[in-house]
Amino acid sequence: MENLTIIRHPVLQHKLTLLRNKQTKSSEFRRLLNEISGLLAYESTSELALQPVDIETPLEKMQGQEVKDSPIIVSIMRAGNGMLDGLLNMLPFAGAGHIGIYRDRFIQNTVEYYFRLPKTSAGKQVLLADPLLATGDTAIACVDRLKQYGVGKITMLCILVSEQGVEKLHHFHPDVKIIALSKERDLNAKGHLLPGLGDAGDRLYKTKDA
Asked: Cβ(105)–Cβ(111) under 8 Å?
């Protein structure tokens, strides 16, 4: 599928299996998501532009390279917050923003309750973080808002995606690249990914019994 990258690296797939396991405790779930997110950061920034910089090693002067334009990491709250530290640990020069949007099943629409980006967001590459891309409605609403602010290229970083969600997001925003670890078999009647890993927010923050 165009503009969708599924990473099948053995280490990531091993960590994903532990993440899926319902026996994995919340503390371990947080640690695994943090580690996976750092590795996703590496994959998603391979095309960042570099610029020369003069430095001095303990032995001599030389010219090295540094990232020219740092990206902005935007978390789709609340589950996206579980990815934020891992991404920022790998990309400490990046800015960070938060979007609070959820799909209300009663009004059949998305509801925004929080939106905050760094002031220098215009034209910047955005890494949009959310562990799960299911129906795609929340992701579409987030991308809509980001584009209103004139950001640059948007890459969505996920753990799991559905074919329906990817197709829907790309119908409205074909320019958004998606990087994930697995495209799931299906969605159930409640819009949950199958086989999935459950509700990522609940598992991160122990807000519901297993």
From this structure: no
